[in-house]
Amino acid sequence: MAFVKISEQDSLYNDLEKKSVLEILTEINQEDHKVADAVQKTIPQVEKLVTGIVSRMKKGGRLFYMGAGTSGRLGVLDASEIPPTFGMDPGWIIGIIAGGDTALRNAVENAEDDTEQGWKDLLEYNINEKDTVVGIAASGTTPYVIGALKAARAHGCLTGAITSNPDAPISEAAEIAMEMVVGPEYVTGSSRMKSGTGQKMICNMISTSVMIKMGRVKGNKMVNMQLTNKKLVDRGTRMVVDELGLDYESAKRLLLLHGSVKKACDAYRAADDDKL
């Protein structure tokens, strides 16, 4: 069967420029409703990938997202949110985009067409067999990503692929393929829309479940979050109040002294144990 790029097929809507703003917004929203259902169908594959990532990460392995354009930016975005949210060192989950950091804000000509560069970029991080590489490409044909996945897999890394097309070349390159088929985009070929939304949802699922299984969440709280602003200090203080039964000011002093909810609670309980 010939490979068909569903993500590049003509939009189900036409004459967009003749529509009212309300019509445009309503139709985009109608299309967005399809994304969650498409992502749901990938859960068995995401589960397999997360289980493998956690097993490797407990042995010192890391997670790399690889992508170009929108896909690359979303991988970098998800990786960049891990340190402030879960208090993990930024070296644990890393986003790499074709063309480097310049490509986060500007298109870099031909960056995604280099089959060898993706693996070269990974080598700069001393990638090894404990690591996991997840390639993200709506089209499923991005040479930069496919080349990186093939090389990573050949070197013993766990590999995953996120794409919007079934039976895509990127799926063949990876050990675990997550194909969330969201259908044609509202603006034909604009994969920053439904495809991008679905990619972000899957990245959220991967990184959040990995962090939970790595012990970075207690109950349902981000007990290791970085205290980078007043809102987060207040949230953390209220967590300490709930956990230890202290008054607000005492909890805040304890939190700021130790730098995270988990460390503050552990230190308080250790001090209590010493008194026994």
From TrEMBL:
Active site: E81, E112
UniProt KW keywords: Carbohydrate metabolism, Lyase
Gene Ontology molecular function, alphabetical: carbohydrate derivative binding; carbon-oxygen lyase activity; ether hydrolase activity
Domain (SIS) ranges: 53-216
Superkingdom of origin: Bacteria
Record flagged with keyword Lyase: yes
CDD domains per UniProt: SIS_Etherase
PROSITE patterns recorded: GCKR (PS01272), SIS (PS51464)
Pathway(s) this gene product operates in, as recorded in its UniProt entry: Amino-sugar metabolism; N-acetylmuramate degradation
Record has rRNA-binding as a keyword: no
GO biological process: amino sugar catabolic process; N-acetylmuramic acid catabolic process; peptidoglycan turnover
NCBIfam families, A to Z: N-acetylmuramic acid 6-phosphate etherase, PRK05441.1, PRK12570.1
Membership in a protein family: Belongs to the GCKR-like family. MurNAc-6-P etherase subfamily.
Assembly notes: Homodimer.
Other remarks in the entry: A lyase-type mechanism (elimination/hydration) is suggested for the cleavage of the lactyl ether bond of MurNAc 6-phosphate, with the formation of an alpha,beta-unsaturated aldehyde intermediate with (E)-stereochemistry, followed by the syn addition of water to give product.
Name by which UniProt lists this protein: N-acetylmuramic acid 6-phosphate etherase
Annotated organism of origin: Sodaliphilus pleomorphus
UniProt gene name: murQ
